[in-house]
Write a structure and sequence with these properties.
It is found in: Cytoplasm. GO terms for molecular function: aminoacyl-tRNA deacylase activity; ATP binding; proline-tRNA ligase activity. The chain is of the alpha+beta class. It contains 15 helices and 32 strands. Bound molecules: adenosine-5'-triphosphate (ATP) and magnesium ion.
């Protein structure tokens, strides 16, 4: 491949686009890789299209390597498939919906579980047909609430989605591990810096779902990570290390007058001043009442969650812990219906007699003593001991995770970082197979319900993530595997420099390299150098003033090193750099 700048459909910009906030967006637009059409909708220009295809090629090679087979579904889909699984409704405003000329409902596919399930059901019937894994690389449509950062969060974007179909749970685990390995190879080859994060709590089966997150300041996801070991997780999936049970004996429970102590801070200073307890907020037990609704039923349970008073409840963690139950705020009128619950002064001592379920943070271990509500207005109780004065019904991961908390794997302090999701692997189980009635006929003639995994890679997003992670103040810096070409040869000057640059370019192309040559006549060296930095190809060869003395300059865009080399060595040196 030989691209000539004199004819290449490319215009670089000196100014950042007005609507761009993050570096990847600014640079991809300035370097002429993408152009905005509408919010979250972009066109790809020649260089951008090459990078996008390079990412897709790596993904395709690694999917093929694990035996996945490529198919292609339409993006335009009839409503019925998504009606059957309830997602026509569930997707809400995120779904692009449209009608055909007859008034029938259609949608633009946001993801394709339903279609793949249906396709397999149509073709396969016997247990002998399984397992099978199918994938596609295709344009997806989501009317994102906040499209942002150019192609990072688009409303139209390219995704690789694959789906595994297995006869049993062991098969699903195997398919999942194969994908996990493939994703590691994909992101390693692409040169993306990433962490693999548990996306679901251990209660749901360990690694039933993991996200590949690219650390980036501009990322919208936060994740918890250990800098000592490779543990990383979404906040929802973090498991609190359980301290050992307390065996020392505690004083008897004591009820204290605590007027005017509406906050944990006022309570702590009051009991320390008045009663000399010497406690901190972490010694208080804060109790939150919630209503838990079970979807598809009228049942609403009253539930109380106890967490140490120095921590807030993280509602997302609470939701994940109660899933599929949905927590709701316990309102003033709910308190009216539960006179046993004294708002602001709830303590777990009475919950058994009230018949209310009580779940505690894992730090509330047997034998631990707390200052908590005394279930009377204006009163708290001290030395309230777990296992003696109250008996929790279980533990729950609902307290916030903080930087500095202990890593559940190695005990070192955790940090909280920001990242961008680039891939997601998920053991779906039988949800879609149940909806579609996807069975295989077993050896005994009985049907076997198929179990599925779903796996996504943000192909277009990966382009933005690479730009986000690998750039400097001058421009982009593509890893070779995805760069639009291996080498950018710049010819500058009035003599025969452009001619020589073009000859080297042709030689290198003949030797199998992908080459971009700046052969534009009448463009100043300064402009050409700036463009080379902005476009970000890994190797730059400058054929300039030194040519008269038989030297050219070799630059490495990633390291910034520059070296004068003899013209005669130019071809071999560029080839060596490309093969390094
Ligand atoms: P996010 O939380 O970022 O919205 P998601 O959980 O909706 O992602 P999935 O439905 O798992 O993502 O989609 C698979 C992959 O597709 C994601 O890992 C991400 O890389 C990519 N992706 C999702 N939404 C977008 C988007 N709006 N623009 C570009 N890529 C996207
Ligand atoms: Mg999303």
């Amino acid at each position: 491949m030989l691209l000539r700048m004199s004819t290449l459909f490319l215009r670089t910009l000196r100014e950042d686009p007005a609507d761009a906030e993050v570096p990847s967006h600014k640079l991809l637009v300035r370097a002429g890789y993408v152009r905005r059409v509408a919010p979250g909708i972009y066109s790809w220009l020649p260089l951008g299209k090459i990078v996008l295809e390079n990412v897709a090629r790596v993904v395709r090679e690694e999917m093929d390597r694990i035996g996945a087979q490529e198919v292609l579904f339409p993006a335009l889909l009839p409503r019925d498939y998504y009606e059957a699984t309830g997602r026509w409704t569930e997707y809400g405003d995120t779904l692009f919906r449209l009608k055909d000329r007859k008034g029938a409902d259609y949608l633009l596919g946001p993801t394709h579980e339903e279609m793949f399930t249906d396709m397999v059901k149509g073709e396969y019937s016997s247990y002998k047909d399984y397992p099978v894994t199918l994938y596609q690389i295709q344009t997806k449509y989501r009317d994102e609430a906040r499209p942002r950062a150019g192609i990072l969060r688009g409303r139209e974007f390219v995704m690789k989605d694959s789906y595994s179909f297995d006869l049993d749970d062991d098969g699903l685990k195997r398919s999942y591990e194969l994908h996990r390995d493939a994703y590691i190879r994909i992101f390693d080859r692409l040169g993306i810096d990433y962490r693999i994060c548990f996306a679901m709590s251990g209660a749901m089966g360990g690694s039933a779902s993991e996200e590949f997150l690219a650390p980036a300041e501009t990322g919208e996801d936060t994740f918890v990570a250990c800098r000592n070991c490779d543990y990383a997780a979404n906040a929802e999936a973090v498991i609190t290390p359980v301290p050992p049970a307390v065996t020392t004996s505690q004083p008897a429970l004591q009820v204290l007058d605590t007027p005017n102590t509406p906050t944990i801070e006022t309570l702590v200073s009051h009991v320390n001043e008045q009663f000399g307890l010497g406690i901190t907020a972490a010694d208080t037990l804060k109790n939150l009442v919630v209503k838990v609704r079970t979807p598809g039923s009228d049942e609403v349970e009253t539930l109380i969650i106890g967490v140490p008073g120095d921590r807030e409840i993280d509602f997302k963690r609470l939701e994940a812990a109660l899933d599929p139950g949905v927590p709701e705020i316990f309102e003033a009128e709910d308190f009216v219906r539960h006179p046993g619950l004294v708002r602001g002064y709830i303590g777990p001592q009475v919950l058994k007699s009230l018949g209310i379920r009580y779940l505690v943070d894992p730090r509330v271990v047997t034998g631990s003593a707390w200052v908590t509500g005394a279930n009377e207005p204006g009163k708290h109780a001290a030395h309230v001991v777990a296992g003696r004065d109250f008996e929790p019904d279980g533990t729950i991961e609902a307290a916030e995770v903080r930087a500095g908390d202990a890593c559940p794997r190695c005990g070192h302090p955790l940090s909280i970082d920001r990242g961008i999701e680039i891939g997601h692997i998920f053991q779906l189980g039988r949800k879609y197979a149940d909806a579609a009635g996807l069975d295989a006929l077993g050896p005994d003639g009985k049907p076997i319900r198929i179990t599925m995994g779903s796996y996504g890679v943000g192909v277009s997003r990966a382009v933005a993530v690479l730009a986000e992670q690998q750039h400097d103040e001058l421009g982009l810096r593509w890893p070779r595997e995805v760069a639009p070409a291996d080498v950018h040869i710049v010819g500058t000057g009035k003599e025969n420099q452009i001619e020589v640059a073009t000859q080297i370019a042709e030689t290198l192309e003949a030797r199998g390299l992908r080459v971009l040559v700046d052969d534009r006549p009448g463009v100043s060296p300064g402009v050409k150098f700036k463009d080379a930095e902005l476009l970000g190809l890994p190797t730059v060869l400058i054929v300039g003033r030194g040519l008269a003395q038989g030297v050219v300059e070799l630059r490495d865009r990633a390291t910034g090193t520059k070296e004068e080399i003899p013209l005669a060595e130019a071809v071999d040196r560029v080839l060596a750099a490309a093969q390094a």
